[in-house]
Amino acid sequence: MLVTLEGLDGSGKTTVWEAVQERYPDAVFTREPTNDSWYGDAVYRSIRDDDADSLAELFLYTADHADHLTRKIEPALERGDLVISDRYSDSRFAYQGATLDAYDRLAVDDPLEYVVDVHEPFTIAPDLTLYLDVDPETAAERAGATNKFERVDYLESVHDNYERLLERDPERFVRIDATQEPEAVLETVENALADVIGDDY
Ligand SMILES: Nc1ncnc2c1ncn2[C@@H]1O[C@H](COP(=O)(O)OP(=O)(O)O)[C@@H](O)[C@H]1O
Ligand SMILES: Cc1cn([C@H]2C[C@H](O)[C@@H](COP(=O)(O)OP(=O)(O)O)O2)c(=O)[nH]c1=O
After folding, report:
1. Is the ipTM above a cut-off of 0.90?
2. So where does this one cross the membrane (predicted)?
3. N or C: which end of the chain has fewer CB within 10 A?
4. Average pLDDT, the chain
5. Number of domains forming the structure of the chain
6. 12 alpha carbon, closest ligand
7. Is residue 199 over pLDDT 90?
């Protein structure tokens, strides 16, 4: 089973992802951008570049995703493992959907749908996505605005895109109120996981 954690920068995904490792010690814990391949290195290089081309960046992230699927996700799912990923395809749909809105040469009406379509032929859809919902102001404050994506106005567009994704796919997403205290967020997450996973892992 594939579970993904999504949300704005600073929503608390990594905090939850680390805490959940104690509850599911046999699961495969992974993340995007990956931090164990040169594709991931290339993505982080691009994140640090304020002048990076947004379309090139979409394909860097997507290359990292393709490699992640082949190298880690697919083999783990074939073994029957539980996989929990801190960010996954929805991050591309929400974030690159937002950056590409301002990309004049991309002749598409709806960048979010375009990014979804790019993934469609090869990706593996998550069984469950926990969306840690915080307002863009709290997110930017918690994240500390350390990179170009962590500005409130940009995070507002990303937040709008996540809302669209939840609307498109209400069965897959569980919305978690991530403005709660960390202990309450973790409890809500563990209950949501137990509801779907049951005693299988
Ligand atoms: N529920 C919470 N309430 C307040 N602060 C939090 C909460 N969850 C995480 N934080 C803090 O916010 C910052 C970002 O958390 P992190 O888990 O790294 O978020 P993300 O991985 O989504 O960017 C960290 O300093 C973390 O300690
Ligand atoms: C996976 C992914 C991340 N991102 C962005 C979100 C983050 O600002 C940045 C790095 O992701 P990450 O290291 O997960 O940051 P954080 O822990 O603060 O949430 O990359 C995208 O724009 N598209 C993507 O597909």
Report:
1. yes
2. none
3. C
4. 96
5. 1
6. 1
7. no
| 59 alpha carbon – ligand 2 mean position (Å) | 14
Q: Residues enclosing ligand 2, CB less than 6 A?
A: 9, 13-14, 32-33, 47, 61, 87, 91-92, 95-96, 143, 147, 149
Cα–Cα distance measured from residue 186 to residue 16, given in angstroms and rounded to the nearest whole number: 6
> Which residue range is the domain that position 15 belongs to?
2-197
DSSP-based three-state secondary structure for 25 = coil
What is the number of the ligand 2 atom nearest to the C-alpha of 14? 17
pLDDT at 147: 77
Reported as type and span, the H/E element at residue 174 is strand 173-177
Decide: residue 41, CB within 10 A, 0-12 exposed, 13-18 middle, 19+ buried: middle
CATH code, 138: 3.40.50.300
Contact 93, 12 (CB under 8 A): no
Per-residue pLDDT tens for 56-105?
Answer: 999 999 999 999 999 999 999 999 999 999 999 999 999 999 999 999 99
Cα of 122 from ligand 2 centre, angstroms: 21
Cβ 4 vs Cβ 87: under 8 Å: yes
Query: In angstroms, what is the span from residue 162 Cα to ligand 1's centroid?
Result: 18
DSSP 8-state secondary structure symbol assigned to residue 131: E
* Residues near 168 by beta carbon (within 8 Å), at least 6 away in sequence: none
14 is in an annotated binding site: yes
